Amino acid sequence: MVKASDVVLILVAIIFPPAAALIITGCSCDFLINVLLTCLGYLPGHIHAFWLIYKKMQAEERFGHDGYRYIGSGHYEPLYNNAAPPIPYPQQQQQQPMPQQAPQYYGSTDNH
């Protein structure tokens, strides 16, 4: 499903493909590849930027919104590994106090 953010990325890719690659991947190898492809010809830079947008949309459909991390070369990995996402900060459990232990003297043969 195409969202408004994807439409904005597509418009940015039409105007200047390296900017779309930078938004999607950050300052990574894919960004540098897109800059070089755009310098070689405007069309290859567009194709690469649209491919990155397509792979991002696939990751959103597969892992959910913000449930993935970009690992390079158009690949994404899940953040939660099919488990429930972490509990937000306000819900904290009470911690049990740690029992007091005598100090240990590592490397010492004489324990006073």
TrEMBL record:
Low complexity composition bias: residue spans: 90-106
InterPro entries noted in UniProt: PMP3
Locations listed in the record: Membrane
Cleavable signal peptide: 1-21
Cellular component GO terms held in the UniProt record: membrane
Disordered: region residues: 82-112
TM ranges: 31-54
Pfam families documented for this protein: Pmp3
Keyword Transmembrane helix: yes
Record's keyword terms, sorted: Membrane, Signal, Transmembrane, Transmembrane helix
Chain coiled-coil ranges: none
Keyword Transmembrane: yes
Family named by the database record: Belongs to the UPF0057 (PMP3) family.
The protein's name in its UniProt record: Uncharacterized protein
Organism: Agaricus bisporus var. burnettii
